[in-house]
Design a protein that fits this description.
The chain is α+β, with helices and mostly antiparallel strands. It folds into two domains: 108 residues, Gcn5-related N-acetyltransferase (GNAT) (Aminopeptidase); 144 residues, Aminopeptidase (3-Layer(aba) Sandwich), CATH 3.40.630.30. Helix content is 31%, strand content 22%. It is built from seven helices and nine strands. Strands 5, 6, 7, 8 and 9 form a five-stranded mixed β-sheet that branches. It has a four-stranded antiparallel β-sheet with strand order 1-2-3-4, sandwiched between helices. Strand 2 and strand 3 form a beta hairpin. The longest helix has 20 residues. The radius of gyration is 20 Å and the shape is globular.
């Protein structure tokens, strides 16, 4: 005797559903957020045995990233219009970042995630043409290009300014820009509740002095204190060992660890002596 059990994600005959991959529309945003949080909530519950009340600690990843890069946001949709997966991709010049990407638990292992990833990759390769840059962004691009050939985080700066998600801190010496930091503040940004979040920080590779990194971090900490926030969250890629050491010297500690996976020519990648804090999630 063989028993069969209906499972969401399969039709009445046990076949995988027909899935369409399309770009995110404005009306999808709340559902995309729900799908991502539900999928990650299920994952964390399986891993640690309890479901977090807030999957990302209150951080928001969908709305402003869609405004910043609407051509890089995709959903997986069943024939009846149900959204069962979503992926977000943004371009930093020649560097493409994918994530978050999520598929509802009952629809996993059906190549839906791979289809979403393929859509993001095709977006990435079709978007390499340089757009016209505002003069104010040229200094940022000069710094990031010296760290990673073709990197441009101008969109991150513009979206933080345009939506009042936080602020971009500048470190200048005379008329020269030495470094900058893009900082998110709660409640409607990628910052978790009660914390300021350093999304990206870079010191010009011609000025690799740890004291410059100390200055920018101190300014971010003052910014958090002024907003009565009790914490500053900063990403640390341990390949940038000097930057990691500066964080330790300032009393930062590891909250959680992640793996960075890269695709491309090694000579385009970063120099370990650069003073950079960046989060590719």
């Amino acid at each position: 005797m063989r028993a069969t059990v209906d499972r969401p994600g399969l039709d009445s005959q046990g076949r995988s559903p027909l899935i369409k991959i399309r770009r995110v529309r404005k009306g999808d945003l709340s559902k995309v957020r729900d799908v991502i949080e539900q999928a990650f909530g299920d994952f964390f519950e399986r891993q640690v045995g309890t479901r977090p009340r807030q999957v990302f600690g209150g951080a928001q990843y969908v709305h402003h990233r869609w405004l910043m890069e609407p051509w890089g946001c995709f959903v997986a949709e069943e024939g009846d219009g149900k959204i069962v997966g979503a992926a977000v991709a943004v371009m930093w010049g020649s560097l493409g970042l994918v994530g978050p990407i999520a598929v509802l638990t009952n629809y996993q292992n059906q190549d839906i995630g791979q289809q979403l990833l393929t859509a993001c990759q095709e977006f990435r390769y079709s978007s390499l043409e340089e757009a016209r840059k505002k003069p104010a962004m040229l200094k940022f691009r000069r710094i990031t290009n010296s760290i990673w050939r073709g990197m441009d985080v101008g969109k991150e700066v513009e979206i933080v300014d345009g939506l009042a998600l936080g602020d971009t801190l500048l470190l200048e010496k005379g008329r020269e820009l030495i470094g900058f930091a893009v900082v998110h503040m709660p409640p409607n940004s990628e910052a978790p509740h009660g914390a300021a979040y350093v999304k990206f920080l870079a010191i010009d590779s011609r000025h690799r002095k740890p004291e410059y990194l100390h200055v920018l971090l101190a300014t971010a900490e003052e910014m958090a204190a002024a907003a009565q926030l009790g914490q500053v969250v900063a990403p640390a890629y341990t390949y940038y060992w000097t930057a990691y050491q500066v964080l330790l010297e300032r009393g930062y500690h590891v909250d959680f660890t992640m793996v960075r996976m890269k695709r491309g020519k090694q000579e385009d990648y970063e120099d370990g002596s650069d003073l950079v804090l960046d989060d590719w999630r």
